[in-house]
């Protein structure tokens, strides 16, 4: 499996996390009883799976290498993807704040949580669509075989730092718990 295929495969997990977030948002929107712990775990998963694992690989490994191959920030799609990473981080902070307010009983938090969850989900889905259907093929064409080896080594170092901190195991455990119970349930 190539480094680009590894990133694309991570999208399947990310989309599963987004489905859990969307389910939680639907429960909140309809006023259904929610498991606040599960809601916070979904938000944590968005942070762990998307931002601390996947985005880091792109921003610290793939994008710098592609820039050396002529696909830097001046290329529209790279610029757009980086902007989406930043926007996703902002949306996630707002989502986390709204979830915390839910726990405090703030009545306006329901509406805010639903809005931020849907905006974040939509952004992540569009980001994945761009990467899977356009950007990763462009990246694959620009990379040389030695580049793939370097990327996979860099990914391994990133994964090692995540494993060392226990975040990778925490991500897997949270996802398994949500699979078993359903998000926000």
Q: What is the element layout, followed by pairings?
A:
Elements (H helix, E strand, L loop, with lengths): L2 H27 L6 H33 L7 H28 L5 H34 L2 H21 L1 H15 L4
Kindly summarize this structure in a few lines.
The protein is an all-alpha fold and 185 residues long. It has helices at residues 3-29, 36-68, 76-103, 109-142, 145-165, 167-181.
The domain tally reads: 1
Q: Give the H and E element order.
A: HHHHHH
| Beta-strand residue fraction | under 5%
Distance between the first and last residues' Cα:
36 Å
What top-tier CATH class fits best?
Answer: Mainly Alpha
Overall helicity: over 70%
Classified in CATH, the superfamily is nmb1532 protein domain like
Give the total of beta strands. Answer: 0
Reported CATH architecture: Up-down Bundle
Based on CA atoms alone, the radius of gyration comes out at 17 Å
Low-confidence stretches: none
The overall pLDDT, averaged over residues, is 90
The shape is elongated
- CATH topology, by name, is Four Helix Bundle (Hemerythrin (Met), subunit A)
């Amino acid at each position: 499996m190539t480094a680009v295929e590894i990133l694309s495969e991570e999208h399947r997990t990310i989309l599963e996390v987004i489905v859990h977030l969307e389910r939680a948002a639907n429960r909140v929107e309809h006023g259904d009883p929610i498991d606040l712990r599960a809601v916070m775990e979904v938000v944590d998963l968005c942070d762990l799976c998307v931002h601390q694992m996947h985005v880091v690989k792109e921003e610290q490994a793939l994008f710098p290498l592609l820039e050396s191959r002529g696909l830097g920030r001046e290329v529209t799609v790279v610029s757009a993807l980086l902007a989406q990473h930043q926007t996703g981080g902002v949306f996630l902070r707002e989502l986390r704040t709204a979830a915390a307010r839910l726990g405090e009983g703030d009545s306006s938090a329901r509406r805010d949580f639903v809005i931020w969850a849907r905006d974040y989900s939509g952004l992540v889905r569009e980001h994945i669509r761009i990467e899977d259907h356009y950007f990763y093929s462009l990246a694959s064409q620009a990379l040389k075989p030695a580049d793939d080896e370097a990327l996979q080594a860099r990914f391994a170092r990133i994964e090692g730092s995540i494993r060392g901190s226990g975040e990778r195991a925490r991500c897997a455990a949270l996802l398994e718990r949500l699979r078993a119970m359903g998000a926000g349930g």
